[in-house]
Specification:
single chain, 366 residues, four-stranded mixed sheet
């Protein structure tokens, strides 16, 4: 039995063309798709990792971030009470709690700010977190953060429009119904911070730039060629010589380096809180909570990063003689004593000189 083989029909011309187009399109498109997929994955991979990190960060922020531990209130309160007790016992021992006519025994209310609305009284000690608390007092006075950020007005000038300078009697009455506080700092660290801020980095055409030029004119010795470079600002030893001469001649001192014992006369006003910059975060937190101001202000120290470090202390004080450092300690002797600071570590930095006899006991400092 034989089968007839069917004759295969060839497709028409258009069908053949379509098949050819489809064949060549498939050959060309598939490699392009593969290349595109590989390239897209290459570029999206970092983005996917970025999104993954972002989601991980959000999860960590919302769910895994540990809460900031609050300081032990009992420890903070005990420390502040001990400081207050120490201050007024030392005031009595030194006889600084008695009224008199000199700058140590005459109540000085000039630098106090009294916020009657929130029952808060502060003595503004320059170079002891003063920028931060001037900002806080301006907030409490009604200035907005946006305004304080944009304005070119001096913060102290803004504050004085809201907080006029009180008389000693008015200040004492206000302190009876308010929380009064004072922020102090190691005297020699505060002095160095004032020098760096007001003289070394003074702005052109300011009072302190002019003062610096006067110090250079009087205290800078002519230096021979190829010696130490001649700075445009007074060096730290030049500034210290100027300061010590002011003391010897009984000239008034700039408010940025006036001793706190004269600036705020703490022996003649009773402060509720004596904060130290060394424990400022905890001290501020307690103060703000005690005054019920948590919703209005927060603990901060705006210029803490610009303050003297131990490295800077060594750098600057190692350029002074031991006698110069001892004279500075004598100038700030009451600040050392009233606020329980020590000169330990400073005398050792000084250069030896003939006038130093090794006796530091005469300054009755620790």
């Amino acid at each position: 039995m034989s089968y007839k083989r069917r004759k295969r029909k060839w497709p028409g011309p258009w069908k053949a063309i379509r098949r050819c187009v489809l064949f060549f399109t498939t050959i060309c498109v598939i490699p392009l798709l593969l290349v595109l997929l590989v390239t897209t994955d290459h570029y999206l991979r970092p983005l996917r990792r970025s999104f993954a990190r972002h989601e991980e960060a959000i999860d960590r922020f919302l769910y895994l971030r540990p809460k900031r531990s609050k300081p032990n209130q009992t420890v903070v309160i005990a420390r502040l009470k001990a400081r207050q007790k120490y201050l007024y016992e030392t005031c009595r021992a030194l006889g600084l709690d008695k009224l008199g006519n000199d700058s140590l025994h005459r109540p000085n209310a000039w630098e106090f700010l009294v916020n009657e609305e929130h029952h808060l009284v502060w003595c503004n000690v320059f170079k002891a977190a003063s920028t931060s608390w001037m900002y806080n007092f301006n907030l409490l006075a009604g200035y907005s953060p946006k305004f304080l950020k944009k304005t070119k007005a001096v913060p102290l000038s803004l504050a004085r429009k809201k907080y006029p300078r009180p008389s000693p009697q008015a200040l004492m009455e206000a302190m009876e119904n308010s929380i009064s506080f004072l922020i102090v700092r190691h005297p020699l660290e505060r002095l160095l911070s004032a020098y760096r801020d007001k003289l070394q980095y003074s702005l052109p055409h300011t009072y302190h730039r002019q003062l610096g030029n006067k110090i250079i004119t009087k205290y800078r010795k002519a230096t021979p060629p190829k010696s130490t470079p001649s700075y445009r600002w007074p060096t730290f030893p030049e500034f210290v010589n100027y300061l010590l001469d002011c003391v010897k001649k009984n000239k008034p001192l700039d408010m940025h380096w006036t001793p706190i014992s004269e600036f705020c006369t703490p022996c003649l006003f009773k402060f509720d809180i004596i904060a130290h910059t060394e424990t400022l975060q905890e001290d501020q937190q307690y103060l703000i909570e005690k005054a019920h101001l948590e919703d209005l202000i927060e603990p901060q120290w705006k210029n803490a990063g610009h303050g003297p470090t131990s490295k800077q202390v060594r750098k600057y004080y190692s350029k002074l003689t031991k006698s110069q450092i001892l004279q500075l300690c004598h100038l700030y002797r009451y600040d050392f004593q009233l606020f329980n600071y020590s000169i330990k570590g400073y005398i050792e930095l000084g250069l030896p000189d003939e006038s130093f006899n090794g006796n530091i006991a005469q300054y009755t400092l620790k």
